[in-house]
Amino acid sequence: MTQSKEERVHDVFEKIYNKYDKMNGIISFQRHIAWRKQTMRIMNVQKGMKALDVCCGTGEWTIALADAVGKDGKVFGLDFSKNMLSIGEEKVQKQQLTQVSLIHGNAMELPFEDNLFDVVTIGFGLRNVPDYYQVLKEMTRVVKPGGIVVCLETSQPTTFGIKHVYKAYFKFIMPIFGKLFAKSFKEYSWLQESASTFPGMKELAKLFEKAGLENIQIKPFTFGVAAMHLGKKPKN
C-alpha cells in the first residue's frame, strides 16, 4: 500500500528522533546553528512576546525563541511526532523553561485561535508537510496583524557549479551519512527527496504573498543552500 506524504514523513521522524540533532549538525556541517542565529537577529524578537514554532521537532528553535521572549513571554512548540517532542520536553525541563509549552498537533490545522501570536516560525519543516500553502495560510491566520511569519529552510541554489554540487550532495552523500551515523539510509533518502522538490526562493516568496503576507524579506545562506523568508501580516 502506498503511503501518503504525511504518513511517510511521520514514520521517518518517529524513527530518527534520537539521532536527529546529531544528524542535523553533520548534514549541515553545523551551519544550521549560524543560519538560525542570523535569522533571529533579523526577526528582532522582543521580551514578553508570544511566539509559536511550527514543526518544532526537538525544540531547538523553540528554545531560542524562549530565550528571546524571556520569562514574561510565552512560546508554543508544535509537532506531529511524539518521539521528536519527547526530546524537546527533556531539553525544556532541563533548562527549566516555564514559558514553553510543547504540543502534539498538525501544522495543516493549527489548534489556535486567529491573531494570537507576535511571531510564528517554521524551521526545516515546511518541506515535509503535504501542502506548503495550507501551512503558510494557517501560520498567517494565527499571527497578529503586524506580526511576522518566518521560514528557515533548505533552498535551491541557482549558481552554476554550486547547484550541481548541492544536488549531488543531497542525492548521494546525505543518505550515506544517514546510514553511517544514524543507521537510517531509507529515512535520509526521503529527506533529500523532500529537499530536492522544495520550491526555490522566489517561488516560496510568492506562496508567502498568496497566504496573505507582505513586505517579504529573503535572506539566502551559504551560497543559497538555505534561506530565510520573513513576511508581515497586514495591520488592516
Quaternary state of this entry equals single chain
- Unreliable spans: none
Number of helices: 9
Mean pLDDT over the full residue set: 86
The rounded distance between the terminal residues' Cα atoms is 47 Å
Walk across the major sheet and give the strand order. Answer: 3-2-1-4-5-7-6
Number of strands: 7
Topology:
Blueprint: H1 5-16, H2 20-27, H3 31-43, E1 50-54, H4 60-69, E2 74-79, H5 82-95, E3 100-104, E4 117-123, H6 132-142, E5 143-154, H7 162-182, H8 185-196, H9 201-210, E6 214-221, E7 226-232
Notes on the protein architecture:
The protein has a seven-stranded mixed β-sheet, sandwiched between helices. The chain is α/β, with parallel strands linked by helices. It starts with a helix and ends with a strand. Strand 4, helix 6 and strand 5 (143-154) form a beta-alpha-beta unit. Helices cover 47% and strands 21% of the residues. The chain has helices at 5-16, 20-27, 31-43, 60-69, 82-95, 132-142, 162-182, 185-196, 201-210, and strands spanning 50-54, 74-79, 100-104, 117-123, 143-154, 214-221, 226-232.
